[in-house]
Fold:
Amino acid sequence: MKLHLWRRYRFAASHRLHSTQFGEEENRRIYGKCNNPYGHGHNYVVEVAVSGPVNEATGMIANLADLDAYVEREVIEPFDHTYLNEEITEFREHVPTTENICIEVFNRLRNFPSATLERVRVEETGLNSFEYAGEPAGATDE
Amino acid sequence: MVYLTRKIEFSASHLYHNPAFSAEENRRVFGKCNNPHGHGHNYVLEVTVAGDPDPATGMVLDLKELKEILQREVSDRMDHRFLNYEVPELAGKIPTCENIATVIWRLLEPKITRGHLNRVRLYETPDLFVDCYGEGHENGAHASGGNPR
Structure:
């Protein structure tokens, strides 16, 4: 039986969309209001899906307490109430679009020991969201 | 291929307890969910059926038919019930979201005779849910039978 266990988390952070590969004017043209030099913030929602056999004794793919502690340590604690561009090493090099946040969250969670990480979905606002399922061919064909 | 999803809600109580564990181990593994009096949730169930629309009706399957199947197989069995004691399909199992979703898949899969059951998504709370794809997988190809037209 193929099952994905999903859990939903939240963090609030600020960012600025600005690429060193473009000049000032082009950054303004491409990123619009998101290029504001002072940054701006969002209430992000992170959904994490893991899979694995259901343990007969517990009825669980993974104990939620373990998953919560792992996500808290790897993502929520470092990301929450920060300026992503400056405080997350990855985003000093890469623009913290929600696409890149999604990939970074996936990479931070991929070694979760109790189950297999399947997919990460990040909502920047209630109106837009992004999903990433890692790179192996066939895993991201949706 | 078109995917159609119907949503229902049901309210039920449950508790997590494995008689093979000591009282202390039950508390450690299951935490608050081990409260012997049980506790409840408003479950939200989303059932997705995949298929090609019938050229004559424009429908994958009649929503009314799906609604009746969900009422009979899920709501009548689980709504306002204590899942541990009143749902025979869960007897001897810990009624986690994983196990309930699996039971619902097995109840619905043989009843969906137009299109085929693609996904059962069960929310225990808005922050915790399970997707069940049966023995197939989520991108539409399926190994679980059904009746695609």
